[in-house]
Amino acid sequence: MWRYTRCSKLLWCKLRFLMRCYMSNISHCNRDLGLLWWQGESPVPEARVDYEAFRQLYRDGALDNRKIQLDIPDGRSRLPLEIGGASGFGVNELVFRMEKFLKSQRMERMEITIADAKPILREIEMEKRLNLDQITKDAIMLAESDGIVFIDEIDKIVTNHETRYGADASSEGVQRDLLPIIEGSVVSTKYGNVNTDHILFICSGAFHSCKPSDMLAELQGRLPIRVELKGLGREDLYRILTEPETNIIRQQQLLMKTEDIHLVFTDDAIEELAKVAAEVNRSVDNIGARRLHTVVERVVEDISFHAPERSGETYTIDKESVQRAVGDFLKKADLSRFVL
């Protein structure tokens, strides 16, 4: 009786598996894998062979294109469209966090491939093993003790006392709103209250049209350490063009490679690019390393325009090529200083 019940159960499992294969249009797996079906003797080892065969196919990626039906939280099945530029914050993540905040348990049944299901299931299982309350508590503690807040373009909310008029007066109100946070207070966030007493605040700005002394006296007192940075010289610009792994030169080469064009910059050409950028910053307007984009684009402008017709060619940019491309660029004077 025991043998009959066990064999009947195994036979039903195998019949159900055959029906699934037929419905999924993968019945040919029996021939490809050489599956050994039970013939009345030692059924358990042969069933184990089937299991190991499919697991090996899964690990090798042979089943990645197979489609399955999966119940996943509503919002995770959306395409990972990116918003906010380089922030990397996806729409699906935003929707999932909002629904999680609202304690929504809606599930959505989707038919997706195994390759797309792997990261979703992995993330769901990881979240099940995380204690979000403890993570939030630790994050708030670390932010209060070791947090650093960098406020860039602080000069945009500072106006010169001699030219303060109209809507510019509202910038002082922004400074007054920042003052209690920098002085130290309890800020309410969606994760809880954060005390800013021991958070380091760093502010930076160009201060072209105003001076740091134009800030509120109270705000100046809460930012006691003042450091003035030097402008970028030719050597600094040359390092920016060569040392970063994805520097501007490398970016241009990869961009031209999409049109099957091999672009080569000689070392003297790179030095000339840095020299021209430093000279234009000195004579026209000092915009720092942003000037390199303008100069490099001027040099490769003609090649980029005719790239589709010149596929497969190799271009070498030397010092003379840079001088010809940016010669008139250096002769242009900044006439804005003479405009009344």
How are the elements arranged and paired?
Layout: H1 2-23, H2 29-33, H3 43-60, E1 67-73, E2 82-83, E3 89-90, H4 91-101, E4 107-113, H5 114-128, H6 132-146, E5 148-151, H7 170-183, E6 186-189, E7 192-195, E8 200-203, H8 217-221, H9 234-242, H10 248-257, E9 262-265, H11 267-283, H12 290-299, H13 301-305, E10 314-317, H14 319-331
Parallel strand pairs: 5-8, 9-10
Antiparallel strand pairs: 1-4, 2-3, 6-7
Structure notes:
Helices cover 50% and strands 12% of the residues. By secondary structure, it is an alpha/beta fold. Among the domains are: 136-222, P-loop containing nucleotide triphosphate hydrolases (Rossmann fold); 234-337, Helicase, Ruva Protein, domain 3 (Orthogonal Bundle). The strands form five sheets. A two-stranded antiparallel ribbon has the order 1-4. The protein has a two-stranded antiparallel ribbon with strand order 2-3. Helix 9 (234-242) packs across helix 11. Residues 232-326 form the Clp ATPase C-terminal domain. This is Clp ATPase C-terminal domain-containing protein. One of its GO terms (molecular function) is ATP binding.
